Amino acid sequence: MNATVGVWLDPGMASFPDKWDDGTDLGSPSYQVHWYDERTAIIRQALHTNFEGPFLYLLLGSERALLLDTGTGHIDLRAIADDLLAERDLSLVVAHTHGHGDHIGGDAQFSDRPDTVVVGTSQADVASYFQLADWPEQPGEYDLGGRVLDVIPIPGHQGSDVAFYDRASRLLLTGDSLYPGRLYVPDWTSYRASMRRLADFVADGNAPDWVLGAHIEMTDQPGQDYAMGADVHPGEHQLQLDPAVLTELADALAEAGPEPQHLRRDHFIVVPR
Q: How many domains does one find in the chain?
């Protein structure tokens, strides 16, 4: 597809693959790339390389590209990114939805890449780079060049967690804070507040078409997940979540109250730690 930089596809032309690599074919490549639109690539690290099977996101603006998360480090992500950015005069920013190892494992591959910034993983690093002066209360904005992202602090899962709302594609990227799977919550108070703020952000005129997280751990049967560590996922839940699932999560956490509770719903499972 040919498109002028800064001119975005009609939302009806955006797409997801019929099927993500679910680990059932051990002969499959170590990664899968799908162009959601002509400026948004979704990369899945194959489950046979690591059971986490994380999803990474590459967003292209007219001045720079943003790579969100680098996976576990078991694939040559540098080569993948170089290929996807070939013949594009764009600098690269490598940032993260949060700082856990399965999201920063490939960072070192980019340390000597020309015209590339790797954002640090601490809360202070993230707040400084994205100019989030009132962490975690106020979101910031980050411009890729003709493509503005809202950067929303959502600590609770790890501490430096952020969500990214892409106004161009109308995708809300939520990392490990919301995806079809087990949502691990060591900081219950912060997580409840973060999910309410994120739901309020969406309700305040920022409605995404889809919420995209970093993993799939649910089956296509409501409320049923795969065993921890499973590297084969026959019959996976789809990656994309309806924005109503975010509202459901925020409401469920509010109803649960201040004491941590295990919550199982059709599209997610909240697991306090």
A: 1
Over residues 92-103, mean pLDDT: 99
Does residue 6 belong to any structural domain of this protein?
no
Residue 8 has pLDDT above 70, yes or no: no
Question: Is there a domain that residue 50 lies in?
Answer: yes
Domain contains 8: no
Any domain includes 188: yes
> What is the pLDDT confidence band of residue 11, given thresholds at 50, 70 and 90?
low
Q: How far apart are CA 91 and CA 70, in angstroms?
A: 17
Q: Give the range of the structural domain holding residue 207, as residue numbers without chain letter.
A: 15-272
